[in-house]
Structures are given as structure tokens and as C-alpha cells.
TrEMBL record:
Domain DUF1206: 36-101, 113-178, 203-272
Source organism of the structure: Zhihengliuella halotolerans
InterPro entries: DUF1206
Keyword line: Membrane, Transmembrane, Transmembrane helix
Lineage of the organism: Bacteria, Bacillati, Actinomycetota, Actinomycetes, Micrococcales
Protein name: Uncharacterized protein DUF1206
Listed transmembrane segments: 37-56, 76-101, 113-133, 153-174, 195-222, 249-267
Amino acid sequence: MLVLMKDRGESSTSKPLRAARSAVHDDRFAALARSGYVTSGVLHMILGWLTAIVALGGSADADHTGALQAVAARPFGVAGLVLAGAACALLGLWMLGRALFGREKVTGRLKNAGTTAVYLTIAVTILRYALGARSSSAESTQSLSAELMKNPAGSALLIGVGVAILVVAGYHIYKGLSRRFPKDLHTLPNSPIRLVTTILGTAGYIAKGLVLASLGLLFVVATVQNDPNDSRGLDGALQSVRDQPYGPWWLLALAAGLVLYGAYQVLRARFDTMR
């Protein structure tokens, strides 16, 4: 009897694990998860458009809040945000399954785990906004920074966040310059599609890396100077770039790069090596 109960317990426990393993290699689940790349691409293109507005002296929230607001203002925009959040959640869950049960080596699994965190965070952010959360990311960042700067441990944490963002920025720039991103894709045919994908990926990864580098530097400098007003998130970082000599032109170049990165993400939904 005890043996039978043990076997039943192990069987009931292993069923979810078997289901998770099979989902990782399910083409239908992978096809749905790819829509998360489309969502990411569209949001980056909107962010590029908002960045261009800031570069030209206009008023816009050039961060994820501004991008979500632009979508929500359209007809059926809230419904679109719900679908976008669900798409990112599916991609995050698929990456989680790949991190746990995929065929990659340890480094590949760690990368997938990081991607899981990114897309699940995006999903939560989009869904919270769709359900009514309307807090400004710049104000939230300033408030949190002010609290953390009140003690040395908090300041050290903020500097650590800035350094981590700089590391991620460096990885994006390296991935663009070295053209390592095609490893994420199926072998592309020698056609205009391959050329376009290479151009989009190279310019897009470099541009996103430079945007993240601006954000990371802003965190570090603001913390060293003990000025939480300078920790205004991505929108604050881009406005700081605009205020520099030739800043508007530099910002327009970054805006174009973000649009190209968004287009690359949309193409990635078609050619990513998800299997």
C-alpha cells in the first residue's frame, strides 16, 4: 500500500514537469510565444518616435510609460495592451521552460533565465498599465532614488544598478558590432531579407546599447552627486543627452536606431531559433 501511494505521489508530481518539458518543444506554444518579440518591437519603435519628438524640442515621455500611453490612446488601445502583455508573458514563460528544461549549456540557460525576467517584467508593466496603473516612471524612479540615497547602503545599491545597466549596454553594443545576433536566428537565405536583418540588427543593438549606457551613467552620476532629481529614468537620460552640444542630432540618431531595433525584433519573431 505504501509503495502504491508513493508511486501515485511521484506520478502526480511528475505530470506538471512532463507537461512543462513538452511545452518547451511544442511548436504551437513557440508560435504563440514569438508574438512577444512583436510586442517588444512595436514598443521600441514607439519609443524611437517619442525620442525623436524630444530631440526636436517637443514634449513627450520618452520611456515605457509614454509608449504605453501612446498605445492606450488609440481605439481599442487598452485591449491591445492586454494582448501585448499576454504575448510578453507567454514569451517569458517559454524562456523559463527553456532555461529549466532546454538543451542549452549552462551559459545558454542563464541567458534564457535573464530573458525570462525581462519579458515577465515587461508583461507585468503592460498589464498593470492596461488595468489602470498610471504612475509616471520618472516620478517613481526619483522617489525611490531619494529614499535609497538617504543611507550608504542604498547609494551603493543605486551605483550597482547603474553599473549593471552599463554592463547590459556594453553587451548590446558588442553584440551589434560583432554581429553575434544572427546566432539567435535561423540561417537566413542570401537575399535582401538577410541584408535588411543584418543592417537592422547591427544598428539597432548599438543604438539600444547607447541608450542604456546613458541611463546607467545617469544613475551613477546622480548617486555620486547625491541628487535624486537627476535620477529620472530613461526619459531623464534622453533629455540629458538632448541638453548636450549637438545633443538633438545625437538623440535623433538614437531615435532612428531604436526604430531599427524594433523592426529587427519584429523580424526576429519570424526567424528566431525557437524550437
